[in-house]
Design a protein that fits this description.
This is SRPBCC family protein. InterPro entries: START-like_dom_sf (IPR023393). This protein has a single domain, classed as START domain (Alpha-D-Glucose-1,6-Bisphosphate, Chain A, domain 4). Strand 6 and strand 7 form a beta hairpin. The protein is α+β, with helices and mostly antiparallel strands. The protein is globular, with a radius of gyration of 15 Å. It starts with a strand and ends with a helix. Helix 2 crosses helix 3.
């Protein structure tokens, strides 16, 4: 199973970064390239432990839906979401927030399993892992820019 780890330093207090990462509106803003929006479950505000959200977006030219659930939360340092329903066989996305003197280190760890067995593993190597890495990085940059724009 591929594991993608991305580190992003944000000059903002840990609670603000944690809340921003749980914001449905900021998630939507960070996914403009895929036209992703919340269409089910919690569709606005901050997600909480136990919440589900269904995202709809266009990936690889195909409109897709994915439902994720927040399975654990230790505010303001960690939360974990997993896929309940969607195109992946499975995924777990762990969000860690490490308080630093000048701000917060946000660490995304995304572990997923593609569908379709060997074809899915081939897709991982050819393009999917790069695509998912780029999405995580873009999302982190949007959060950073939003949180640092007034500071």
């Amino acid at each position: 199973m591929p594991e993608i780890i991305h580190h992003q330093f944000i000059k903002s207090p840990v609670q603000q970064v944690f809340d921003a990462a749980l914001s449905v509106e900021l998630h939507t803003k960070s996914m403009t390239q895929t036209k992703e929006k919340a269409v089910g479950g919690v569709t606005e505000g901050l997600l909480e432990e136990g919440d589900t959200v269904t995202w709809e977006g266009v990936h690889f030219g195909v409109r897709q839906r994915l439902t994720a659930r927040i399975v654990s939360m230790q505010a303001p340092h960690r939360f974990v979401d997993v896929m309940d329903k969607g195109v992946f066989h499975s995924f777990t996305h762990t969000h860690d927030f490490i308080e630093k003197a000048e701000g917060t280190l946000m660490v995304d760890t995304f572990v997923y399993q593609s569908p379709l067995g060997i074809l899915g593993r081939l897709a991982d190597r050819l393009f999917l892992e790069k695509y998912m890495t780029r999405m995580l990085k873009n999302r982190a940059v949007v959060l950073k820019n939003e949180l640092e724009k007034d500071g």
